[in-house]
Design goal:
Layout lengths: L4 E6 L9 H11 L5 E6 L2 H10 L4 E4 L16 H7 L3 E4 L2 H6 L4 H13 L3 E6 L3 H5 L3 H12 L9 E5 L13 H19 L7 E5 L7 H5 L6 E4 L6 H12 L2
Parallel strand pairs: 1-2, 1-8, 2-3, 3-4, 4-5, 5-6, 6-7, 7-8
Helix pairs in contact: 1-10, 5-7, 7-8
Bound molecules: 1,3-dihydroxyacetonephosphate.
Length: about 250
């Protein structure tokens, strides 16, 4: 089973209209690497404009509500993302789990809402530093997978991102062996639950990925791409990661 490499930029709460040129440059450079799927997830406010300025490119949200509409002040529903031009959404990022109290059941409901709205999903999991140090990282992450991954979906439209919390924005990265072990464990759990369909689900690594470490991390077993924060904000930093994925 060959899974296409998938490199996704999560702009987090960064980006004004003046950043749209950067997105255009990223997508234009990505055209040189047709073997890699590339997506950008800007803040809600830029989704419509980014989708309009880069027709046919994959633009996504960073979160969605689990309801399709209703009295939820400040929230954005999955059908609204699709209506604005998004084709995917990230759910369960650790900054949502930790900063906004999202639990596995919430994330599962968000993923189901996104799939129902026709979006692809990237569902994030990852352990805090203390759990890694105590040797419990794999059990912790597999419990997140068990609790937050929906029971049925098109595997082509569903990816998991393993993002160890202590590696996000810190410059720290796990060893390649630890990444391969985690991704292998996630793949094994998916296989037990979904059988052969598990082979089509892409598992991305995220946490301090940059142009220098991307080839090594993306070359590890069962790593199908990267979810990139800081280094996705400019073409100068993001395009080398895309190129590294293309070279694998
Ligand atoms: P950094 O690449 O900035 O470490 O962020 C990773 C991340 O959280 C992507 O979702």
């Amino acid at each position: 089973m060959t899974r296409r490499k998938y490199v996704v930029g999560n702009w987090k709460m960064n980006g004004l209209k003046s950043a749209l040129g950067e997105a255009r440059s990223i997508f234009a450079a990505a055209d040189a690497h047709p073997g890699v799927d590339v997506a950008l997830c800007p803040p809600f406010t830029l989704i419509g404009a980014m989708a309009a300025t880069a027709p046919g490119k994959a633009v996504g949200g960073q979160d969605c509500h689990s309801a399709a509409s209703g009295a939820f002040t400040g929230s954005v529903a999955a059908p609204m993302l699709a209506d604005a031009g998004a084709s995917l959404v990230i759910v369960g990022h650790s900054e949502r789990r930790e900063g906004f109290g999202e639990r596995d059941a919430d994330i599962r409901a968000k993923a189901q809402a996104a799939l129902a709205a026709g979006l692809s999903v990237i569902l994030c999991v990852g352990e805090p530093q203390g759990v890694r140090e105590s040797g419990g990282a794999i059990a912790y992450v597999l419990a997140q997978v068990e609790g937050s991954v929906p029971d049925s979906f098109d595997p082509q439209r569903f990816a998991i991102a393993y993002e160890p919390i202590w590696a996000i924005g810190t410059g720290l990265v796990p060893t390649v062996a630890d990444v391969a072990a985690m991704h292998g464990a996630i793949r094994g759990a998916l296989r037990e639950r979904f059988g052969d369909a598990a082979e089509s689900i892409r598992i991305l690594y995220g946490g301090s990925v940059n142009g220098d470490n991307a080839a090594e991390l993306l070359g590890a077993g069962d790593v199908d791409g990267a979810l990139v924060g800081g280094a996705s904000l400019t073409a100068a930093k993001f395009v080398p990661i895309i190129a590294a994925a293309a070279g694998l």
